[in-house]
Amino acid sequence: MRTLQVVNFREYATFIISDTSIKVTVEEMRCVQSTAYINSLAFHEYHLRDSDEQVAFRVNLTHVVTCLKVHSKSGASLKLSYRGHGFPLELIIEENGVVTDCNLKTFPPDNLVDFSMDPDAHNRVTMTSDLMKTFIKEIDPTSEVVEIGLSSDSPNMSIVTAGHGGQGLLEMDKTDGTFRTIECPLVLKSSYKLCHLRMAFKPLSLFQTLCLRIDREGLLRLQYMTNTPNMSHCVAEFYVLPLCE
Fold first, then answer.
1. Per-residue pLDDT averaged across 92-104, rounded?
2. Quick one: pLDDT at residue 245?
3. Are 14 and 110 in contact (CB under 8 A)?
4. Which of 92, 109, 163, 182 is deepest in the core (most CB within 10 A)?
């Protein structure tokens, strides 16, 4: 449920259900796209009528999260079912012998932006979420734009802001043990709206590991992972478009 909360910055989301996972995707003005991946192994039972096809629909994610939040105790059980086009998404929650049946109206899926990165033309670093949270706290909240740079040269990562207090600069380097992994064959710098980055950094408090990528075009990809047992089958991913120069 908490995985769905971190992508719930818009009211509606597109659910894409396959034989291996449930993908829940939300977009903001086609500039920010977030996806929560829930592996089929997270469920005690998981059945798809036709494993060769995926099922897609749009539903009010805020209502889904609200239904789950009411019964968020560890002893509650959840059955999620969808019978097909035109039918509601049904959530049956049982807790201490009390059964709650929620039926949420579904709609045709959104036409989502297909964000993709060139695997041979991007920089990539992996770090702990706690470390990034420390740096994010230092960002000037009055700065509307944030520049992120990644390079093989020292400092390997830079975050530049310009707010009411003047220009701010945060730097991270592989020599101080900041990164778990670093692959930066290019020298890249791109600028993003701070309000968009705030959406993308929302999962930092839930996941342990952050993988950050930037490609030649400035497309930013943030992937969140964790080793926590009850979250090990969940991943959150964000794409953020850069500002035009």
1. 89
2. 64
3. yes
4. 182
Q: Domains plus CATH for the chain?
A: 2-107 (3.70.10.10), 122-240 (3.70.10.10)
Query: Average pLDDT, stretch 12-33?
Result: 95
Q: So what's the pLDDT on residue 73?
A: 63
The one-letter code for the residue type at 149 is G
Amino acid at 41: L
Report the distance separating Cα 70 and Cα 170, nearest Å: 40
Q: What angle do CA 36, 65, 116 make, to 5 degrees?
A: 20
Q: What share of the chain is helix, strand, coil (3-state, %, to 5)?
A: 20, 45, 40
Question: Which pair of structure tokens corresponds to residue 40?
Answer: 């089929």
Kindly report the backbone phi and psi dihedral angles of residue 74, in degrees, each rounded to the nearest multiple of 5, phi listed first: -65, -25
Give the confidence band of 136 by pLDDT, cuts at 50, 70, 90: confident
Write the DSSP symbol of residue 186.
S
Instruction: Kindly tell me the burial class for residue 203, based on how many C-beta atoms sit within 10 Å of its own C-beta (0-12, 13-18, 19 or more).
Output: buried
pLDDT of residue 70: 75
Q: What does the alpha-carbon distance between residue 114 and residue 6 come to, in Å, rounded to a whole number?
A: 21
Contact call for residues 197 and 160 (beta carbons, < 8 A): no
Rounded percentage of the chain residues whose pLDDT exceeds 90? 67
Beta bridge partners of 16: 23, 56
The pLDDT of residue 244 is above 90? no
Q: Which of 159, 158, 163 is nearest to 144 (CA)?
A: 163
Which helix (H) or strand (E) segment holds residue 146: the answer is strand 145-150
